[in-house]
């Protein structure tokens, strides 16, 4: 995901502004050479040279990384941006030993890879100038949405993780199309475009999804028969259970290891 954000950012910003560091230095060098960025020998060295730090590691490994960054950041106002699921601003500050450090949490989703992502953001003690810089950085990835941190794990479940649920739905619809006799390629495209168009209808009309569903369901028609089959199979309950499980796991990942 860090690579996706960077690839988007260098479309509009000077790549020489970006300094990359990775526990596998060859990965950082390969990406830097490809995009025209700089590299640093360590996270600490990169943070020393930067005004805005983007932290992209696994939640389970963040503790040692914060310990490494702490000597550089503790007595500065350099904004630390984290894309770690579940790891709160309070936890990040505790790891830095800096109880009021400027921190932004960002939760991207995979459509950011094609510029159609949804980037959730929450921040504390961050200047308006730094917020504007972050929005500029993320703009090529898609839409940015600010949320209070108290809603962030819920938002992560709905936005960051749910594309996987949608892909599963598209795959299942395509399988049904193949079962009915459609070639696989056409079945996948038809299913994907149906989901894409339906999502656009929700966003562009502002109508409630239930109202839009009713528009498609003619009395005694084929669509309402399909809706009834989904309800009989517990479709809504399954979707709600998936989002709930993702939300709870996101919260659990916030514990520093």
Structural write-up:
Helices cover 56% and strands 12% of the residues. The chain has 257 residues and is an alpha/beta fold. The protein folds into 2 domains: 2-148, 3-Layer(aba) Sandwich (Rossmann fold); 162-252, ProC C-terminal domain-like fold (Orthogonal Bundle), CATH 1.10.3730.10. The protein has a 5-stranded mixed sheet with strand order 3-4-5-6-7, with helices on both faces. Strands 1-2 form a two-stranded parallel ribbon. The model has no long low-confidence stretch (mean pLDDT 93).
The order of strands across the largest sheet is 3-4-5-6-7
Which of globular, elongated, flat, extended, rod-shaped describes the shape?
A: elongated
Q: Output the structural class.
A: alpha/beta
Largest sheet entry: 5 strands, mixed
Number of helices: 12
The succession of helices and strands, N to C, reads HEHEHEHEHEEHEHHHHHH
Structurally, the number of domains stands at 2
CATH class category of the largest domain: Alpha Beta
The beta-strand count equals 7
Ends distance: 22 Å
How much β-strand is present in the residues? 5-15%
Low-confidence segments, ≥5 residues, pLDDT <50?
none
Relevant terms:
257 residues; two-stranded parallel ribbon; 2 domains; alpha/beta; five-stranded mixed β-sheet; Rossmann fold; ProC C-terminal domain-like fold; 12 helices; single chain
Q: Could you give a quick summary of the protein structure above?
A:
The protein has 257 residues and is of the alpha/beta class. The protein has twelve helices and seven strands.
Task: Please specify the SSE layout and strand pairing.
Layout: H1 2-9, E1 19-20, H2 25-35, E2 38-39, H3 43-49, E3 52-55, H4 62-73, E4 79-82, H5 89-96, E5 103-107, E6 117-124, H6 128-138, E7 142-146, H7 152-160, H8 162-179, H9 184-205, H10 209-216, H11 222-232, H12 235-252
Parallel strand pairs: 1-2, 3-4, 4-5, 6-7
Antiparallel strand pairs: 5-6
């Amino acid at each position: 995901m860090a690579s996706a954000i960077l690839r988007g950012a260098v479309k509009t910003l000077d790549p020489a502004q970006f300094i990359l560091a990775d526990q596998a230095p060859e990965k950082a060098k390969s990406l830097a050479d490809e995009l025209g960025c700089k590299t640093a020998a360590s996270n600490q060295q990169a943070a020393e040279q930067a005004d805005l730090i983007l932290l992209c590691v696994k939640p389970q490994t963040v503790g040692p990384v914060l310990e490494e960054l702490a000597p550089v950041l503790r007595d500065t106002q350099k904004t630390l941006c984290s894309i770690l699921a579940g790891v709160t601003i309070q936890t990040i500050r505790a790891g830095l030993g800096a109880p009021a450090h400027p921190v932004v949490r960002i939760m991207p989703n995979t459509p950011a890879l094609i510029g159609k992502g949804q980037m959730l953001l929450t921040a504390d003690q961050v200047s308006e100038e730094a917020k504007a810089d972050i929005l500029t950085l993320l703009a090529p990835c898609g839409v940015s949405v600010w949320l209070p941190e108290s809603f962030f794990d819920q938002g992560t479940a709905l936005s960051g993780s749910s594309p996987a649920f949608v892909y599963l739905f598209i795959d299942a619809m395509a399988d049904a199309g193949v079962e009915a006799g459609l070639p696989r390629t056409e079945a996948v495209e038809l299913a994907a475009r149906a989901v894409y168009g339906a999502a656009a209808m929700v966003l562009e009309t502002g109508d409630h999804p239930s109202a839009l569903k009713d528009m498609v369901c003619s009395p005694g028609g084929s669509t309402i028969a399909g809706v009834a089959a989904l309800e009989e199979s517990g479709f809504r309950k399954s979707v709600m259970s998936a989002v709930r499980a993702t939300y709870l796991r996101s919260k659990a990942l916030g514990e520093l290891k």
